Amino acid sequence: MALRGLFTKGAPTVASGLGPFASAGGSGTRWQGLCHARGLKVAALPDLEYDYGALEPAISGEIMRLHHQKHHKAYVSNYNDALEKLDAAMAKGDVPAVVRLQSAIKFNGGGSNSVVVRFFLPSEFVVPVTIVGHINHTIFWKNLKPVNEGGGEPPHATLGWAIDTDFGSLEALVQKMNAEGAALQGSGWVWLALDKERKKLLVETTANQDPLVTKGANLVPLLGIDVWEHAYYLQYKNVKPDYLKNIWNVMNWKYASEVYDSEIA
Amino acid sequence: MAMALPLAYASSVVHPFEAGRLSFSTKATKHKKQIYQFRKVTKVLAYYGLTNPPYKLDALEPYMSRRTLELHWGNIHRGYVDSLNKQLPNSPFYGCTMEELIKTTFNNGNPLPEYNNAAEVWNHDFFWESMQPNGGRLPWGGVLDQIEKDFGSFSNFRDEFVHSAMKLFGSGWVWLVLKTNERRLSIVRTSNALCPLVWGDIPIISLDMWEHAYYLDYKDDVSKYVNNFMDHLISWHSATARMVRAEAFVNLGEPKIPVA
């Protein structure tokens, strides 16, 4: 899985398939050492590679700080709490609870994609939602880059050609993604996805924190734009189209190219 | 009960004699044209209007700021009304009342394009009227009796309502509804624009859990928002009026008439 290579902090676990996202780097000390149920590792809030204010004026520092420290962190904490509950249930031998929890955390090894698909079960339980919330946001931080570090620079080479082939031009792609993002009702994400099988680029939207794979088992996220209101409301109020227009100024096409190249290869 | 009534009228002036006129004109025709220009046929289209909340925009401070209401009502709610009005002239549902429009366009779970806008217009109207300045605290009379009957106690109801609001994931609404079939009050969570009207239930109180409803005032502190709503904003007056109306449709049992 291409993303694994980009998360160098901490060693990926063998059986979990959550390896890259469960790397215990940075905060998360409270839960370390806990919960080795089937090789599950606790999640940790990844640090941003740039300052909170570095993406201004496209995204304000206040939003970045809240988004990272409150919203993303909440997903991480809730996931870890859920793992703690699972651990406790297993220790106590509380079979019904374990069954209930594990049916939501099915690990059979395999790639992250297959794990995430099995996660997404219609259940009251908080684990599937929190882990994909965590994953989506981790990808999102990687998708953004300050302007002075190359954010907004259009893609070249393989990804650039692929965009021209599949959408006509970069402008057409941006327009399509902005249109889909603006039309999305409620909360969700808009993705630039790569269909691994057909080697084609697609624009997809997902609701709430649904993982991209719910739209196709072979889809790999290259770029994701968070269109939950917390991602833009403080700055853009209800004018979502302005947020979508400006976020392209800080888009990290380099990351998208790397993912694309490693998946296509 | 809130309904977006057709308030505004737009008239498009159609000159019946313009269409297909021949280009030649005699003195007689010119004269006729002058006369007929004074008898213009007007085609009247009725649209939904944006109803005002029953209080000034700063009346809910400090629990819901004027700025939030300016944006939430003035931009977002207004935006839904405008979008709905854009859809209606070409829609087969032109002329329905709001509730009819919602139930029909919901289409049993396969919503038609007008549904989202119609439902959100109605939902927001209902929400403004579910709040009042100096609201909160306890209901009284029949509403309190019914809550105690269906939830055990008011604090049970309050806890359940807050819990339901906290559990809602994504965008949506939390409702206190009177279930018509079960003939009891119940708390319901809906996503995005979904409204309990479509199931034939009667909403009594609603709380907007979309992030735009609280983000400016509370950022991510959802619990504070919900608790402030329960303690300071919820309008039991509206709830009482709605319950009274609802009892015309749902038989909640014999009243307790004291025996002499």
What does this structure look like?
Chain A contains ten helices and three strands; from the N terminus they run αααααααβββααα. By secondary structure, chain A is mostly helical. Chain A has a domain at about 145-265: minor pseudopilin epsh fold. A three-stranded antiparallel β-sheet of chain A has the order 2-1-3. Chain B has a single domain, classed as 3-Layer(bab) Sandwich (minor pseudopilin epsh fold), CATH 3.55.40.20. Chain B has nine helices and five strands, in the order βαβαααααβββααα. Chain B has a three-stranded antiparallel β-sheet, sandwiched between helices. In chain B, strands 1-2 form a two-stranded antiparallel sheet. In chain B, a hairpin with a 4-residue loop joins strand 3 (about 170-180) and strand 4 (about 185-190). Chain B starts with 5 loop residues before the first strand and ends in a 14-residue tail after the last helix.
> SSE order of chain A, as H and E?
HHHHHHHEEEHHH
Radius of gyration of chain A, taken over Cα atoms and rounded to an integer in Å? 18 Å
Q: Report the CATH architecture of chain B.
A: 3-Layer(bab) Sandwich
Give the amount of beta strand of chain B, in percent: 15-25%
Q: Give the helix tally of chain A.
A: 10
**What is the mean pLDDT of chain A?**
78
**Top CATH class of one domain in chain A:** Alpha Beta
**Tally of separate domains of chain B:** 1
Which CATH-level-2 architecture of one domain in chain A? 3-Layer(bab) Sandwich
Helix content of chain B: 40-55%
**For the largest beta sheet of chain A, what order do the strands appear in spatially?**
2-1-3
Overall pLDDT of chain B: 86
Low-confidence stretches of chain A: 1-38, 104-125
Strand content of chain A: 5-15%
Main sheet specs of chain B: 3 strands, antiparallel
Radius of gyration of chain B: 24 Å
The structure class of chain A reads mainly alpha
